[in-house]
Amino acid sequence: MKLLVTGGAGFIGANFVHYTLKHKPEHQITVLDALTYAGNLANLETVKDKIHFHKLNLNELETLQELVAQHDAVIHFAAESHNDNSLVNPWPFIDSNLVGTYHVLEAVRRHGKRLHHISTDEVYGDLALDDPAKFSETTPYNPSSPYSATKAGSDMLVRAWVRSFGIQATISNCSNNYGPYQHVEKFIPRQITNILTDTKPKLYGDGHNVRDWIHVDDHNSAVHLILEKGKIGETYMIGANGEKSNKDVLAVILELMQQPADAFEGVSDRPGHDVRYAIDATKLRTELGWKPQYTDMHKGLKQTIAWYRDNRAWWEELKQATEAKYKGIGR
Fold first, then answer.
1. Residue 82 pLDDT exceeds 80
2. Where are the alpha helices (DSSP H) in 24-60?
């Protein structure tokens, strides 16, 4: 297949490119990315001779239409995704996640192409810490931030285009990813790079907020399975039963990096910080036969820590700018 990967220079998208080239070398890959702060060509440096790349905003409609017409399927990763940033300035999230997705939908509709839309579990809001429930494909949407609201809206657009216009699309909602190439503003790489720069890690509030963590390679293996075997019009939850509180994740990082258990600093909590996310991936596992590789977070974090330790040149400049921003808001 000829795959067009939107947002393919970002964290999950770039890892999708690397994963595809390694495990599905028969596919041809074209990446388009606007190269905003979260898109980084360095993420694709080692594979640049094996792919085609276009710097493109999804509002550049003529070129977008031409590229979609030349490919068999669009894997739509492109999105503004950092909650903290959406609280400061929601507009880029509306422009990218809603308007950008609309343009992708119109392009695949015009040219009759397959679409897989990447979304998040944050569209469902959050769960109580003592609630045994998990998010499933039938959980009502209840977004709580500008980021999650725009992702919920983009999911709804995809469903409407499937029903109204018959486009060939699937959706996946995934839990929190971690792994190589993740921007240092995110929780796990921020703590790892803090330790690597002799700075205390930061913990929001009491650290009891729970996320359902998944290694990015497991996410992308599921995306490929949905692309190949998923039923058109269906939504699939992607999760690896990786529920851990932020405090517990930080404890594992401190342990693996041989730091004292109390070697962190508490900072003010994020406004509207969702309490708990948890994914029920039964449908993906039973209907498509998916299994994650990283079932032990120690294994996944050990690999991730090694990558950041070995690739300081990739993150050091980003780190300075990110920490200056956080210092300005007291976190």
1. no
2. none
CA quadruple 117, 102, 88, 119: dihedral, nearest 10: -10
User: 244 forms bridges with which residues in the sheet?
Assistant: 211
Residue 122 annotated as catalytic: yes
Pick the CATH number of 2-183+212-242+273-295 from 2.60.40.1120, 3.40.50.720, 2.30.30.140, 3.40.1550.10: 3.40.50.720
φ and ψ at residue 218, rounded to 5 degrees:
-65, -40
**Identified catalytic residue from 124, 147, 178, 294:** 147
How far apart CA 305 and CA 186 sit, in angstroms, is 14
Q: Which residue has the tokens 């730091």?
A: 259
Phi/psi region, residue 103 (left: phi>0; alpha: psi -120 to 50; beta: rest), is alpha
Q: Catalytic annotation on 95?
A: no
Q: What is the mean pLDDT of residues 184-210?
A: 94
User: What's the pTM?
Assistant: 0.94
Classified as helix, coil or strand, 266 is: strand
